[in-house]
Amino acid sequence: MPTKVLNVRTPSHTTFINITREVKAFVEETEIKEGLCVVYVPHTTAAVFINEGADPDVVKDIAYKLNQLVEWDDPNYRHMEGNSAAHIKSAIIGNSRVIPIVDGKLVLGTWEAIFLAEFDGPRTRKVIVQVIGEK
Q1: Secondary structure of residue 122 in the 3-state scheme
Q2: How far is CA 64 from CA 27, 28, 114, in A?
Q3: How many structural domains are present in the chain?
Q4: Rounded Cα gap, residues 74 and 106, in angstroms
Q5: Given this model, what pLDDT does residue 60 score?
Q6: Residue of 65, 56, 2, 69 whose CA lies nearest to 29
Q7: Does residue 114 register a pLDDT over 90?
Q8: What is the per-residue pLDDT for 111?
């Protein structure tokens, strides 16, 4: 199974980085015509999601609402590292996505993009991309 590890440097505490181009390029390199692409983030304070990539205000709105829902400095958090909010946001969003591959291309909607979500940066994050299918 073709696998690639993307190392993504996140510039700030909370940020969403569009990784669609890198994932698409890898899928095309594999020459898999029909199958699945798994995008996985092996971190407990980061996540991966698919949403609109054309208008940058969409991800800003997502960050805004997540910050409203999950406050960073809630005095009732018990996790001793002080980053409970990052763990909670990651659990809400999720650490993987599966995207179909048809005719050698990722099947994404017109406006869809794949984002790495950072909730406890800046850091260097790994994104594991694995392709399952037939040439």
Answers
A1: coil
A2: 32, 34, 19
A3: 1
A4: 40
A5: 96
A6: 2
A7: yes
A8: 97
Domain containing residue 79: CATH number:
2.60.120.460
Q: What is the pLDDT of residue 78?
A: 92
User: What are the tens digits of pLDDT across the range 81-110?
Assistant: 989 999 999 999 999 999 999 999 999 999
Cβ contact 40:128 at 8 Å: yes
Q: List the domain range (segments joined by +) for residue 57.
A: 3-134
DSSP states along 45-103:
TEEEEEEE-S-HHHHHHHHHHHHHHS-TT-TT---TTS-HHHHHHHHHH-SEEEEEEET
Q: What is the dihedral of CA 9, 113, 93, 97, to 10 degrees?
A: -100
